[in-house]
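dumping this here so i dont lose it
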């Protein structure tokens, strides 16, 4: 059973349990109405025959109630098995031989299970945390939206600052950024210790580690900066860089902007050369 089927199975089990409980309540109410006939006094003798007629159905209702009870027990068992499976979900993308990209269900700490996108790059499995490709998703989002994440895992999306924090606080992660510029050049930037702080610290870009790549280190300018959005300004200048360039770890704005409006504000600037970008993929994986 894959991740999406598991989520559907859990929801179906919960809905079936609710239906069974409601039906049991209705049957119990009907049974109580019938049994109340035995409490009527002689003045109500005229209605007793009718009650006796209805009472003939009591045995059938009891049989149905038992069937519903067995169905309820089976549904609870299925739900418990699903919950048991969820407890053992991986906290990272798990290896799948021969697959370049897929979606997987993970669980990080006490967070709710979350469906994430995974990609094989040079025989290493990464989790995709951000992707830009065609401008189909608006990245001019609020603080809350950047915190929770948004978009389509099969297209453009941002995984969410809270998820980045939960992942990188527990274990050292490396960050890989894959870029394609307007001339279709393939560019890479790697950092070996990517750490995002918690919300109380403004989801600060706490660490990046050492840099490696063929595009120049433009992101280190943002190290130590809190995240900024149009409704939460944490940069170092009077104007709000988050209003102009969308959500990012802005300093005095930025030398690289991967969440900007597509395509005019997506760029990587190094030594006065500005790469205008067509595609961006940000990925992370634990350091072995």
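and the seq i came up w/
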């Amino acid at each position: 059973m894959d991740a999406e089927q598991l989520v559907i199975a859990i929801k179906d089990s919960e809905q079936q349990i609710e239906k069974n409980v409601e039906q049991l309540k209705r049957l119990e109410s009907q049974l109580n109405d019938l049994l109340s006939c035995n409490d009527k006094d002689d003045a109500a003798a005229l209605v007793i025959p009718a009650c006796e007629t209805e009472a003939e159905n009591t045995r059938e209702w009891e049989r149905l109630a038992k069937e519903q009870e067995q169905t309820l027990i089976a549904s609870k068992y299925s739900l418990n098995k699903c919950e048991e499976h969820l407890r053992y979900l991986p906290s990272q993308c798990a290896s799948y031989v021969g697959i370049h990209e897929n979606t997987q269900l993970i669980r990080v700490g006490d967070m709710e299970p979350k469906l994430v996108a995974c990609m094989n790059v040079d025989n290493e499995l990464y989790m995709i945390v951000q992707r830009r490709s065609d401008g189909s998703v608006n990245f001019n989002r609020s603080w809350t939206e950047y915190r929770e994440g948004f978009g389509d895992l099969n297209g453009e999306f941002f995984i969410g600052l809270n998820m980045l924090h939960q992942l990188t606080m527990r274990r050292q992660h490396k960050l890989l950024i894959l870029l394609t510029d307007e001339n279709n050049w393939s560019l890479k930037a790697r950092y070996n210790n990517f750490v995002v702080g918690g919300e109380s610290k403004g989801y600060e870009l706490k660490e990046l580690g050492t840099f490696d790549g063929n595009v120049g280190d433009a992101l280190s300018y943002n190290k130590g900066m809190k995240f900024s959005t149009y409704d939460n300004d944490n940069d170092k200048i009077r104007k709000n860089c988050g209003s102009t360039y969308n959500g990012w770890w802005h300093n005095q704005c930025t030398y690289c902007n991967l969440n900007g409006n597509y395509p005019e504000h997506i760029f990587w600037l190094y030594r006065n050369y500005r790469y205008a970008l067509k595609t961006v993929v940000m990925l992370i994986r634990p350091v072995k």
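Residues 3-88 form one domain.
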